[in-house]
Each structure stands twice: as C-alpha cells, then as structure tokens.
Amino acid sequence: MANFSFTRIADTNDGMFSSLRPPAINDAGTLVFRAEFGQDSSEEQGIFTGSGTGTTKITDTIGSFASFGTPSINTQGTVVFSAVLDEGEDGIFTSNGSTTTTIADTSGLFDLFGFAPAINDMGMVAFNALTDAGEEGIFSSDGSTTTTIADSSGSFRLFGSPSINNEGTVAYRAFLGEVGGIYKGDGTTTTTIADGSGLFSDFFTVPGINDSGEVVFSARRGDKDGIFISNGTEIATIADTEGKFSFFGDGTYINNAGQVAFTADLDNAGVALGIYTAPNNAVIAAGDQLLGSTVRGISVLSTGGLNNNGQIAFLASFEDGNTAVFRADPVATPVPEASSSIGLLAIAAIATINYFWRNWKQSSKISEDGIN
C-alpha cells in the first residue's frame, strides 16, 4: 500500500448496520453512505454521514421514503440523493439531517430520475432524468430554477450519470447520434471532451470534473483501455492497459489540485481490484492487510470518491465476512532539500497530473484534431 493512513467510519461488525454501500466524501473529510439497519425486527434503509467519531442519520425509510439511490455530499454537509416515496412518487432531494428539500420530483415535469445525482458547494444539483414529454437529458437545479444541460430533443441520447463542479459545469457521458462521447456544459455552451468519431471507441463509467473544467474519464482507445484527462482541447493518458493494469473499474476522480484517482486490476494473476493514484501508486487493494484484517474486495462510487485534500472514500469487504466504510488520508512526508536549499513537502501517495501537462510534448499527446 502507498503512504496513507486509514480511518474506519462504519462497519457491519458492531450490530448497528447489516449492510453498507460505497461512500462519497466532501472536503471536510465527512463521508456519506447508504446502509441497511435493523428497526423493530425489520430491515430499514437509511443514509448516514460520518468522519470517524460516530455516525449521523440523515434520513431513512421509517418515514415517508421507501428506498434510496446513491447519495453525495458537499462541503457544507448537504446531502443529495434520489428516493422513491411510500406512495410511489420519486424525486431528487437534499438534506442536512434536519431539513429536507425537494429539488425535483415526478409531480412536476419529470417522469423518472437517475440513480446518482451530484451536488456542488453552492447547492446546485446535477442529475439525469426522463421528462413527462418523453425526453431524456441532463439537468441542474437548486430546487427553484432548473436548467437543461442537454437532452434528447436534439441529437443527444442515452445519458449517463453526471458530475458537477463549483462553476456549475456538468460533465456527462452520452451518445450524439450514433457516436458515444464525453461532454461538459452549463446549459448555454456544450464542449466535446472526447468522442468515438476518432481514436476512441467506447467510454466507461462517470467522468469526473474539477473547478478548472478538466475532465477525467475512462475509455477504449485502439485495443487498450485507459484513464484519460482533457480540458476540451487536448487529451493526455493517465494510465492504460499497455502498462501494469489489465482493467479499469468504477471510480475515476480528479480534484482541484489536479490529483487523479481511479480503480483498476493489475496484470498479475490473482491481484484483484484496487484504488490507485496517478500515475500508478497503490492506495489499497484486495489481498492487503487493513487494520488487522485481510481485504477481500474494494468498492467505490463512480463519483465523489476523492476530495480536494487528497482523501479517498471506499468500502472494503474482508475475509471474515465483515464490511466497512473507510477514509484514506494521505500522509505528508518531507522530501530532501533541493540544491537551491528550498524545502519541499510532498504527499508521497498522490502524484498530480500537472506532470502530464508540463511534459505534454514528451508524453503521448492527442490533439483535438486527432479525435474529431
């Protein structure tokens, strides 16, 4: 494992939770996760937050909700989630644990919602949905004003779940006609990040976006799968299956420092899914020892797994049958002084993608012309 410390947020070993789902994390280091728990001899579902000193229930199915999708959390601690209500309606909601706000629901212009909405620090929520008119699309809303980012009234179709930055720019996967691609937009301007009209043939998982508008995504280029980053003009390779990796899973993240994290399998037989930071630093993987137990598997969310401090949220399952939600915290280590006597401090486990931009001419560069 790389130079990280690990904080257990919740587990199934203490009798409170019977099952746990992968978490998301905010910049305060607070995780949000969905879980099942016992209540009056019945199994209920809830959304919880925690930072290592206990957990807080945000909402549960004991009240008016029947089931939940995947939650996300912003720096203010506001949690966004999709949910089905007891009466059968569904919608997108936010909550801080005391006040719940409806962002959009099926009593209005929408008929069906995606499973995993995203939220930025201004409280703007991005989600995919199907309208009553039969149009599918990507939308953003603060609960009072809804903006169409892209929809199938034009040439777009088959939208994946979105991510959103603090500028209100939304990144998403979609088909434009018969060609799949990665796009970003704010409801006024749409930018093609990469598409299948050139060197790429398939796109996987949910793209991540930072406040600079840099988008990280997983895709197939030629006969290799990889993790790529683009600002809408140029594309660089972060990692691909030509190297040590054989497969890339869910979870492709970028933060405002340009740090990239992703999940992958190694070429070595028997080495299972793990979390890595660019270019190939291992954070945790199946088979590792974690707090005295052997990790059997790692699960992450497609978005929200990396914060701006380099902390990573994940779910681990263990050989003893227990599962637990963890936060991985990068450990800062001093670097020997440079010849100029300027002291440097580096986070050993996370390499920033600034390396890829600074060395663009020497790295595998793809011009915008090369993908169109």
Keywords:
globular; single chain; Methylamine Dehydrogenase, Chain H
Polypeptide structure, described:
By secondary structure, the protein is an all-beta fold. It has a single domain (4-371), classed as Methylamine Dehydrogenase, Chain H (7 Propeller). The chain is built from one helix and 36 strands. The protein has one helix spanning 354-358; strands at 4-11, 17-20, 24-25, 31-39, 42-50, 55-60, 65-68, 72-73, 79-85, 90-95, 100-105, 110-113, 118-119, 125-131, 136-141, 146-151, 156-157, 163-164, 170-176, 179-185, 190-195, 200-209, 215-221, 224-230, 235-240, 245-254, 260-266, 274-277, 281-285, 289-290, 293-299, 312-318, 323-330, 332-335, 344-347, 365-366. The strands form eight sheets. It has a five-stranded antiparallel β-sheet, with no helix packed on it. Strands 2, 3, 4, 5 and 6 form a five-stranded antiparallel β-sheet that branches. It is globular. It starts with a strand and ends in a 6-residue tail after the last strand. The model is unreliable at 338-372 (pLDDT under 50).
